[in-house]
Amino acid sequence: MRRAFGWLIRGVLVLVVLAVALGVWKREEITRLMAVNNLFAQDRIVANFSSMERMFLHRPMQAGTPVPLPRGPDVALPEGFDDWLQARNVTAYVVLRDGEIVAEEYRLGTAQDDLRISWSVAKSVLSLLYGMLLEEGSVPGPEVQVTDAVPALRGSAYEGATIRDVLAMSSGIRFNEEYLDYHSDINRMGRVLALGRSMDGFAAGQKQRETPPGTVWQYVSIDTHVLGMVIREATGRGIADLVEERLFVPIGLERAPYYVTDGFGVAFVLGGLNMTTRDYARLGQLVAQGGMWQGQQLVPADWLAESIRPQAPGGALYGYQWWVPDAAEEGEVFARGIYGQYVYVNTRAGVVIAVNSADRQFRAPGIHAQALAMFRAIADGL
Question: Are 284 and 247 in contact (CB under 8 A)?
Answer without folding.
Answer: no
